[in-house]
Structures are given as C-alpha cells and as structure tokens.
Structure prediction request, 415 residues.
Amino acid sequence: MVSRRKLLGLGAAGAAALGTGAVVARSMLDEPPRARAASASDPVPFYGEHQAGIVTPAQDRLHFTAFDVTTDDRAELVELLQEWTAAAARLTQGKEAGSYGAVGGAPEAAPDDTGEALGLPASGLTLTIGFGASLFDERFGLTGRLPAQLAALPKFPGEQLDPAISGGDLCVQSCAHDPQVAVHAVRNLARIGFGRVAVRWSQLGFGRTSSTSREQVTPRNLMGFKDGTNNLKLEDSALLREQLWAAEQDGSPWMAGGAYLVTRKIRMTIETWDRTSLAEQEQIIGRNKGEGAPLGRAAEFDELDFAASGPDGQPRIGEVAHVRLAHPSFHGQARLLRRGYNFVDGSDGLGRLDAGLFFIAYQRDPRRQFVPIQLSLARADVLNEYIRHVSSGLFACPPGVRDAGDYWGRRLFAA
Prediction:
C-alpha cells in the first residue's frame, strides 16, 4: 500500500510542474547536426546505442527527479519501464505522453497527458534514466546484477548530506530548452507510475554550467566564472570510449554502452563570495574571471601551467586552487563528462539565497574517476569555504533503447 508520504511526493511533482508552467525560456544554441536537430525547438532522436541526454549538447533547462519504487512485484516494475519508455519516445518527439493525449479520450476518464505542453515544440527534450544501488535488493531478484561501479560513495570531508534529497531507486533526467517541456515530461512519467513509484526528491535547474560540445560557448556558474572549460565533449570519440561508456569487460554486460551518473547538490554561500575581492576569487579558482584563462595565460583554452611562478616566486596557480586539485594530471588522467545546472530555490529564511550548482557527471567508473577527484577537492580545495554539498546520488544509466521493441533496462531484467 502506498503511504501518505509517498502520495504527497507525487502530488508535489504535479505542483512543481504547475508552478513552473508560466516560465518559458528558449535558448538558441549553435549545436553540431549529428547530435541535435536543426534548432532548439526540434526533437532529439530517442533511439540509439546510447541514451540521449549524456553527450547531447546540453540544453538550457533541467528537471531531475529521483523515485522510490513502491511495488515489490518484478513484473510490475518491468511493465512500468516499458510504459515509461513508450511515453518517453513520444514526449521527446514533441507528442503527448499517451495515444489519446490530453483531450482525445473519453470525457469520463482521466486524460493520457496532463496537457500543459499542448502547442509547444519538442524543445530538444531528452529523457535519461538511471538505476540506484537500492534497486538491486531482494525485491526484484537483482542482487547478483549490482555493478561494482555502484559501490557507495565514501563520506567526503565537510559534506552535509540530507538523506531526504539523496539516493533513490530510479532517476530521470529531463533536459530541454523550455522549462515547461522539461517539467511536463517528468510530471507525466510520475503520473504513469502512480502506485508503482513515488517521487523521492527533485531538482529544477537553469543555465547549463558545462558545454558538452565544442560548438557551445562555455557557460558561467553563479560565482560568475566560466565552468567546464576542459569538460569531455561529444567530439572526443576516443576519450569517450575510454572515460565515459561502460564496456562488456567492466563486469556488468547489461551496462555496456551505458554510463554511471553522480549528482551532487552544491549550495554556494553567495553573499560571502560576493564580498570577496576579485584577486582572491581568481586565486581560489585558478582562472581569471573575465576570459576564463588559466592564471598566467591569455586565453580560456590555453594549457594550464602548474610550474609557472609569479613575480613573487610563488606558483601562479596555487597548490590549493580548484583547477589544480581537479586536473586530470593529478588523478591518473581521470576525466568526467559534466552537464550540471545552476539552481535558485528561494531563501533560507534568513535572507540568504538557497542557490548554487546541481552537479551532474557521467563516467565509466566513479571509483576511479569521481571519487579520487572529489577526495582531493574535499581535503584541500580553498573553495570549500564557500560551498556545501547537501545531496548526493549515484545511478547506473543503461545503454540506449534500440527500437520500439526495446525498453529502458531490458538487458538488466532479461532472464
């Protein structure tokens, strides 16, 4: 039986959709044709080797949602994933969630679609699903298929995680150039899943904080700095095979062609940062604020020179600068594909903005990529004075859906 708390969780998803509905923003991005449609209004292909929404050029808006599975019936879960896949294939092409849509069914029956996206284009919508470690328990007979890469993240120094906004059995990342389209998609998946899943937590995001294609300009985070300059890009085919996509030999054949997702909600102490001098801000990050160039260099994409000294004989890029501690050269060349978003969730009641970065990173193995990088940052990054990690998620995102006869996670549930 679904608890009152779970029912309220689903209701909150609907309320979020209605509350965001009045906001319409479309970001026209110059994106490469093989990874997107001709404009920000057009659909992104749903079927393919990999799920869309990973290397897809990052859209401007996000609605990320984690779900708890409330049924203990394996067949019901598989049926839900099949229904979700069919709805996602329709929604990402600018169609309504069900065949009868918002107004085409019997008047006495609930509609097949909630209707708030009627008349809106596809807006580059992508829907990406992931499975949390908690799904691989005795309920569904999946204990033997838990990937080693889903090992629990360690407790990092200084983090202040809230369990209520962390974890989850399933996650859905909904990205689009129109916030109403992104929220509409999640709302309809929650509606379809009623009685089988319940919303655990969700996060709205705006203004991408990474570029996932070289055709995109580097965006800025809420600290005002360019973010994700050296991010993995969809054009980096060899690096993507090495650093992003899971392979058969990694130990979980059902994940081949998928990737592992880490999310972190990182709240920024905006008011303190805004009173910090420009020179100190640049030393903390290791780049200049205007161009985004590494300190001591001229252009954003210049190589970082960690050996260079300034006039005072000290390293231009300090030992505890953010870019030094996060750089692949200090972590066995480990890299991430980041596609995070800014967020502002009102204030904390004391007049301080509840704002920051919703960090999203895809990789082949979090144990060898995210974990060592984050440990280095958590232990020494001077930026920690201005940020707090308040939520965390780790999910296995399976390969793409090949055709209309396939569904999200089919290989996981195959006998």
